[in-house]
Amino acid sequence: RLPAVRAGRMTPMTILAVAFTTLTGLLMGYDLCVVAVVLQPIQVDFKLCGDAFTCTRKELFVSMVAPGAMVGSLVGGVLSDRWGRRTTLAISALCFIIGAILLSEAATYAFLLQGRIAIGLGVGIGFATGSTYIAEIATREHRGRMVVCQEIAQCVGCLLAYAAGWFVGEHAWRWLLGAAGIAAFVQLMAVMVLPESPRW
Question: Mostly located where (predicted)?
């Protein structure tokens, strides 16, 4: 557990904790933007549009992150208060991993939807907890700069999604969707050893 937050310089452990926590923002940005890269080949492979006027299946695939994130944000605070920030961040990372596996290995449309919902849960739980954790471990002088790292990481994740799509190609959509699981696994391993918030 980190000592109570004091004024002064950030410790190396605190900086590491912030860096690994902001992987939630990176994952959110990546998963929201990579859909723009992979949507066309997925639409073709799964026949998401019967014709120009019946693309409901495609619209559902894109939008299912939103209800997942809404539920995740509602339960994220409760889980964080009950089980601690670290454990809740681990749950968020697990949701991202499950979502990445479901999406990259999807054989049916139902698996695509389940994967997007799992990603949404990870987004909601992670954002409800990550910013709180960062604010609680950062020193007063650095708190604002540290919390905004979540938003910066989100933009970086979005850029990574587009860059990966450009380098790998949209038809390797399973690889592009599964890649998010790597960052989520790194975060999961990291939060196991990171200190708990002194406020919890």
Answer: membrane
User: What is the b/e burial string over 121-155, where b = at least 16 CB atoms within 10 angstroms of the residue's CB?
Assistant: bbbbbbbbbbbbbbebbbeeebeeebbebbeebbe
CA-CA distances (angstroms) from residue 191 to 44, 75, 103, 129, 137?
A: 39, 19, 24, 12, 14
pTM of the entire predicted model: 0.90
Domain segments of the chain: what residues? 27-191
Per-residue pLDDT tens digits for 89-123:
999 999 999 999 999 999 999 999 999 999 999 99
Cα–Cα distance for residue pair 86/68, rounded to 1 Å: 21
In CATH terms, is domain 27-191 a member of 1.25.40.10? no
- 3-state helix vs strand vs coil in the chain, percent to 5: 80, 0, 20
